[in-house]
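Task card 7
Instruction: Convert sequence to structure tokens.
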Amino acid sequence: MLLSGGLDSTVVLAHALRDGFRPMALTFRYGQRHAHEVEAAARIARYSGVPHRIVEIDLRATGGSALTDDVAVPKDRRADAAAGIPVTYVPARNTIFLAYALAWAEVLVAHDIFIGVNAIDYSGYPDCRPEFIAAFERVANLATRTGVERGAPFRIRAPLIGMRKREIIRLGRALGVDFAATTSCYDPDATGAACGHCDACQLRRAGFADAGIVDPTPYQPASLTPR
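Output:
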């Protein structure tokens, strides 16, 4: 279970628990500026009673993203949020994360890998699309002893991939998710308060509004004033 500490991955965790899976949560501290999400993931794993591993990798070495490099996080991209791949895309991030998860799954003799990607209300990242998930599942079964010799295929499960953010939030509420424990912001302040203006904040705020549910996120005071 790839657990980022964000809303989507937390809903996926609750979904897997409801369906009778026994998740092993995996989180990455990869040099991201929004490292508060790692603390959130640890809280969520403890609350959910699932084993949790934090892996340290450094994607700042490759850079190329506002989340891992000295590049400003775009704010208030309302008009063009769907136009092109934004600078908050981290090169090959989900490919790297899933590869780590695949290695651990093979050691654990686990055949299901869960990821909270979404291809409807999202920032336009290429590694959140159904085509990528299907392709990685093929790779997983071509590149492992489990897939080649044991005839027990890996499944990459992305149960939220075709859902609107409001639908994800409503599902989370039905599953008893504590949204206050999750974080979404790409550019939080030192206390973890969300900026309210990055793509992730805007998607989260719009999703809660559309779902008719109060967003419990602590936002920075300035976020309440449109730019």
